[in-house]
């Protein structure tokens, strides 16, 4: 079979196991079987990034997903960057076309698609809480979509100000008196199994004032933030949507096939149950 491999360091990220399962093979392998494709997706870890990327080329591995801290470090080892990766200097997917390695960022692609499909107006003001790699993907997707009035809310001033400056938005250490119409959580607050699993990423009053709420945390599918927003009748975008759509875009890049919405839903459900 054609081989694919999500790559991470031995001390892989603290993302919940079920989200890792979706990223590391269940989703992909379920679709390969459903569509009768001769592909296999298997996770591996490495201490030696140059050797691993060289192995992808030498062994003819069709592609791989990339975890932190390799998302930026892999860039000099590639032949080309898709605009989705170039705009944020971060790669989460490598595709091998007959020895030519191209880096993509399907997180960026997924977020851009979700902002569009949910009809989120770029005229809205926003507060994006977080300053890590995923926050960078969200911030630049907002900028590309035409958003201009927003704040990066991050307690780490160095990281927060750097992201704000790079993406062209303002920075604030706390939400304070800001009254954004769009709230976006890109921190682990509300993540299952984490120390703040039961906490809201934004104050209840801010959620009540908001027009739409977006939580990138994928597990649980309904975080405290999403649950609170839904109870108030607010439109929401969930992390489960992000996780599924970015995995789908990886699948399309690897295979050139786009499964039906029903097949995608079945694969996502399978990956979370396995």
In words, what does this structure look like?
- The protein has twelve helices and 14 strands.
- About 5% of the residues have low confidence.
- With about 270 residues, the protein is α/β, with parallel strands linked by helices.
- The protein has two domains: about 130 residues, Rossmann fold (3-Layer(aba) Sandwich), CATH 3.40.50.10860; about 120 residues, Rossmann fold, CATH 3.40.50.720.
- The longest helix has 17 residues.
- The chain has a six-stranded parallel beta sheet with strand order 11-10-9-12-13-14, with helices on both faces. It has a four-stranded mixed beta sheet with strand order 5-7-8-6.
- Keywords: NADP, Oxidoreductase.
Please report which band the strand proportion falls in: under 5%, 5-15%, 15-25%, 25-35%, 35-45% or over 45%: 15-25%
Q: CATH H level of the largest domain: which superfamily?
A: Leucine Dehydrogenase, chain A, domain 1
Measured as a percent range, the helix fraction is 40-55%
Domain count: the total is 2
Order of helices and strands: EEHHEEHEHEHEEHEHEHEEHEHEHH
Q: How many strands in all? A: 14
> What would CATH call the class of the largest domain?
Alpha Beta
CATH topology of the largest domain: Rossmann fold
Q: Helix tally?
A: 12
Rounded to the nearest angstrom, the distance between the terminal CA atoms is 22 Å
Radius of gyration: 18 Å
Q: What would you call the structural class?
A: alpha/beta
Sheet with the most strands, sense and barrel status: 6 strands, parallel
**Spatial strand order of the main sheet:** 11-10-9-12-13-14
Question: What CATH architecture of the largest domain do you see?
Answer: 3-Layer(aba) Sandwich
What characteristic shape results from the CA principal axes? globular
Could you name the ranges where pLDDT drops below 50 across 5 or more consecutive residues?
11-22
Mean pLDDT: 92
